[in-house]
From TrEMBL:
It holds the Pfam family ThiS. This is Sulfur carrier protein ThiS. It comes from Bacteroides difficilis. InterPro entries: Beta-grasp_dom_sf, Mopterin_synth/thiamin_S_b, Thi_S, ThiS/MoaD-like. It comes from the Bacteria. The lineage of its organism: Bacteria, Pseudomonadati, Bacteroidota, Bacteroidia, Bacteroidales.
């Protein structure tokens, strides 16, 4: 199954969750936010939020500075 993550194609196993995507991409647990198809997904839902073919994800990482 293919999804777009920050405008890059990523191959996932079918029925992957956001938590599984985070593990596959080796992203940190803290300091990020995820939107799927222009809708922010609360961190409390990541473990059970199932991704679908052609979903468009935006992952935002917090940065220090001003």
């Amino acid at each position: 199954m293919k999804v777009q993550v920050n405008n890059k194609e990523v191959e996932l196993i079918p029925n992957s969750t956001l938590t599984q995507l985070m593990t596959q991409l080796e992203l940190p647990v803290q300091g990020i936010a995820i939107a799927v198809n222009n809708k922010m997904i609360p961190r409390t839902e990541w473990e059970r939020f199932v991704l679908h073919e052609n979903d468009n994800l935006v992952i935002i990482k917090a940065a220090c500075g001003g």
